[in-house]
Amino acid sequence: MPRISIRLMGWLVLIAASLYPTAAMADDDRMAKGLRQAVAMSYGFADWDQVEEIRFTFNTQSARGHSARHWTWRPIEGRVTLEIEGEEPITYLQSDLAGEDVSEELSKTDHRFINDSYWLLFPYQLIWSEQTVTDAGESPLPIGEGTGQKLIVQYPDEGGYTPGDAYDLYIDNAGLITHWVFRRGGGEKGSAMTWESNVDLGPIKVCTDHHNADKSFRLWFDGLGVTTVDGTSHTPE
């Protein structure tokens, strides 16, 4: 069994006791699912319900130049606003997507929001989304030297914007992601990115900086802010 920190093991014991009260599931499956929960908790998932509003700017820099999209999301209301320099802001309710007559503009905007917020809050998707998970044990990192505990996350072949995708996560002893490899459609080859510069944002923690192996592509977040349900505004500490 791969080594895990005392902090992480504490989460695993607590979660295993509450989620898996019987021994019907194999130990390895229970450990993988417990680890998925523990990672989300390491990023403050237990306090997500305190978030009234979250604000962030999704930035990318590549050979094609720099792009930026600023989002304001009120998750309790399901209200999303997109702001791009030089364009009119777009605001919509996520419940609007449940209808049959969803406009192309709304669908495109929501697709962007799902992508951008997915990067920011991916650890929470380990609880929010339907997946299968496999604990692959201690493994070499895909960028740089060292090892991490590898967790393979596989999405179903149907549903969502990109069905069948897989993510290989590399997790440190604090339960935080240090790298991932995205494999479109679950293919063998994928794109590796770092996970760097974690910051506390009110009651939650987010990762703000990512780059590929040769640093030709960078993705980062700024303009970060959270308002909690008690009306307090938080910026990165």
In short:
The chain is α+β, with helices and mostly antiparallel strands and 237 residues long. The chain has helices spanning 6-19, 27-42, 104-128, and strands spanning 51-62, 65-74, 79-83, 90-93, 132-140, 147-154, 166-171, 177-183, 191-194, 196-201, 204-211, 218-228, 233-234. It is built from three helices and 13 strands.
What does it look like?
- The chain contains three helices and 13 strands.
- With 237 residues, the protein is an alpha+beta fold.
- The strands form two sheets. Strands 1, 2, 3, 4, 10, 11, 12 and 13 form an eight-stranded antiparallel beta sheet that branches. A five-stranded antiparallel beta sheet has the order 5-6-7-8-9.
- β7 (166-171) and β8 (177-183) form a beta hairpin.
- α1 crosses α2 and α2 crosses α3 (104-128).
- The longest helix is centred in the middle third of the chain and has 25 residues, at 104-128.
- It is globular and about 45 Å long.
- The relative contact order is 0.17.
- Mean pLDDT is 88; it is low at 1-28.
Poorly predicted sequence stretches spanning 5 or more consecutive residues: 1-28
User: In one word, what is the shape?
Assistant: globular
Q: Largest sheet, if any?
A: 8 strands, antiparallel
Please report the distance between the alpha carbons of the first and last residues.
36 Å
Count the beta strands: 13
Mean pLDDT equals 88
| Estimated share of beta-strand residues | 35-45%
Number of helices: 3
Structural class: alpha+beta
What fraction, in percent, of the residue positions are helical?
A: 10-25%
Oligomer: single chain
The sequence of SSEs as H and E is HHEEEEHEEEEEEEEE
